[in-house]
Structures are given as C-alpha cells and as structure tokens.
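Risk mitigation, structural track. In case the binding assays with S-adenosyl-L-homocysteine fail to produce interpretable data, a predicted complex structure has been prepared as a fallback.
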Amino acid sequence: MIENGKVYLVGAGPGDPDLLTVKALRLIESAAVVLHDDLVPPAILALTNPLAEIVNVGKRCGAKGPSQSDINSRMIESALAGNSVMRLKGGDPGVFGRLAEEIDALESAGIPWEIVPGITAGLAAAAALGASLTDRRKSARVVIITNHRAAGSDAATQRDWKALAREDATLVIYMPGHDFEALHARLLAAGLPAEIPAALVSRAASPDQSVTCSTLDDLAHLPRVPAPSILLVGWALDAAVRRALAAQSAAVLAEADLLLSR
Ligand code: SAH
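Fallback model:
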C-alpha cells in the first residue's frame, strides 16, 4: 500500500512501540527511507525494514543537527529519486513538530504527501498520571501550549497567558524547561490559584516514565526530571494527583516503618 515518490509525515507516538498506530507500523516496516527525530526511540527504529535508509535528522536543544531546510531538501530529493519516504516524528507530527513548514516545502516541490497522526505526548502524560484531561464538572477545555521561546516565534513570546491559563481549562505545557520559578510566577500572575493541581510527567510511555505531583504553589520547588517532560496543570487532575500523593506518602511511611523495625 505504500507509494513510491511520496512522503509520509508520520507520528511515532510517545515512545512505546505498542502505542504506534497500525498504519504507522505498516509504513515503518515498508518505507525505503526513514528520516526521524531524536524523540523516536531505538525500539521503534528496530521495526524498520532492514534494507531501509535510516537517518536521524533530530535537532535536539543545543546540539548541532541538520537545519529545517536541510531536512526539507532531503525529503524532497529522496522522494524525487522514487523512494517511499517516511518523516517519522515523536508523538503527533502536527503538534510542535514543524509540520506546516515541511508541508509547504513538499507542496512547493510538487511532492505528494500524507499525514499519519500519532498519540501526542500530552495524552500519554495524562494516561501516565491516570487522569482525564477534560471533566465535565471541572474542565471544559484543553490548552496545548509550549513554554519554549524559540527565536523568531512571536506566537510563543507574546502569548496572552491570562487568556489561556483559565481555571476551567487543563493546561498541557510542552517543553516546560527547567525554570519552574518563572513559570510558577507567570501562571499565578495569569490568575490561576496556588492550590490548582499540577503534574510533571517525564518520559511518558517509556519504561522509565515518572510522574511528580504537586500544586501550582509547589511548582517552583519541583526537582529536575529527565527530558523529555511535560507539565499538566488543572482541576481535572485533582483526584489523580491526590491518589498519587497518597500513594507516595504511603510508600514513605512504609519505608520509615521498615527502618524503625530494623
Ligand atoms: N510532536 C510531539 C511534540 C514535539 S515537541 C508530540 O506530539 O508529542 C517536544 C516536546 O514534547 C518535549 O520537549 C516534551 O515536552 C514533549 N514530549 C515528547 N515526548 C514526550 C514523552 N514521552 N514524555 C513527556 N514529554 C514528551
């Protein structure tokens, strides 16, 4: 079913190969050229065709990698050479994945393309926490947002946090960074209450995923966690955050008991 001379813009999901879509898996197994991000784990790359050309075109923060125009040219050249090309991105390709720029480049070059959606990290983070992102009693909307202020990204720098950070919304903050003090101040200034639940999810859907629960007030004191991580904030998380905190205290008490009984 895969076509030559075409580019498939595919979401690899949050990391667990079991969370690939069936369509993504079929394409991964048959694409001749796979251009992938850093976020795509070895367990998923292991599913590619042994004869495929696999290229990491990731541009991890700080590290030097190919520019966006290098990636565009590479996709176009491989498709013009008659290959089936897969542009494989972590999560969903259309969420903070520079998909629009790649579509523009493919359109300009007259290359056929198709989007295959994937499970975005925010959804995997909510699953890791054990929470629903919406709750008809508390949260009627989900706001997908990034705290990363890329150069030239006006949308990110001039964002109106007051309009986005509302008590009846669940905030899903991609690329939250490490400066939680600044984020804490920004969200409080936007009008969110100090006691609103927050959860920092690191490496969601990976074997070493971790969930750190807190409230907005404690956000400034959260420990650093391994990247990639995502921050969820909102009342819809309340019950899940309480459950996680109770389980954490129970574990601490059990450990203290163990130490005392020695
Ligand atoms: N297209 C991707 C997002 C790319 S932006 C998607 O739909 O998920 C990269 C950011 O996504 C990371 O900085 C982090 O905030 C988030 N992210 C990606 N994978 C993640 C994971 N497994 N766990 C937690 N956050 C993740």
